[in-house]
Amino acid sequence: MATRGRTRPSRPLEGKTVITCAVTGAETTREQCPTLPITPEEIAAAAREARLAGAAILHLHVRDAGGAPTQDVETFRATMDLVRDACDIVIEVTTGGAVGMTLEERTQPLALDPEMASLDCGTVNFGDDYIVNTLPEVRRCARQMKERGIRPTLECFDLSHVDTAAMLVEEGLVEPPLHYGIVLGVPGGVRCDAGTLEFFAARLPAGSRWTAIGAGGRASAIALRTALELGGFVRVGFEDNVYLDKGVRAPSNAELVRRAAWEARERGLEPATPDEVREDLRLRP
Ligand code: ZN
Questions:
Q1: Is 0.90 surpassed by the pTM of this model?
Q2: Residue 22 Cα, ligand 1 centroid: separation in angstroms?
Q3: Which of 53, 128, 209, 242 allows an S-S link to 257, with CB 3.0 to 4.6 Å?
Q4: pLDDT tens digits, residue range 111-138?
Q5: From ligand 1's centre to the CA of 84, what distance in Å?
Q6: Domains of the chain (ranges plus CATH)?
Q7: Ligand 1 midpoint to CA 3 (Å)
């Protein structure tokens, strides 16, 4: 059991890692990040740059004309069309949406049959707000993804969420290959340090793929390096962190991807291509 969750010995994508880029998110503002991509055109351009820098998956949120987060299906459709025209990156839509949205609102982009989508596996404090995902809601969301053949990223902000994900697997609502997103460093959630991330990873079923997500500059750096050491995948981008170094704003999402790719190559790992991810995670053609 010692190697449970530590995918190094039989890691998928041997010698590779997978970089996801979360280019926009729901919370980041232009005040915090003057180059934040907001319009569908800007998001597609950012996705292409991120892809060229080594990202294989785009974690996608969209905004309305005023820059506020929206789960509007037409905005997602327009953005996804532009992204697909711009590059071959795998699209993972958010079903987390933004604080205060209903599940019905949040799951609208699933109607567009993206290859992947995030699936929040429980409730968590989120700064001064909170994200609610009751068990019936988590199940409903998982069922929709299963029926549509969308590969979920099982987002776990807490250890209880890992156990909820296991329940979904037992109930047949989620099928392998399993891909987890371990989210640490959210204010009100679990603090990000290497030991905690390792503990979470060790709790995942053998053979699981997992992506480390650190919220904020410090957590993001720890999550990135620890995941690469443990055989996990990594996520960067303005949703999670806008800094390249302490006090130094990243000029673009692509610059954060380039840094992650460099960190991977320093450890002998090559960033996987979107097609390698499609094969590994058995994404719907
Ligand atoms: Zn997100």
A1: yes
A2: 7
A3: 53
A4: 999 999 999 999 999 999 999 999 999 9
A5: 19
A6: 16-278 (3.20.20.70)
A7: 29
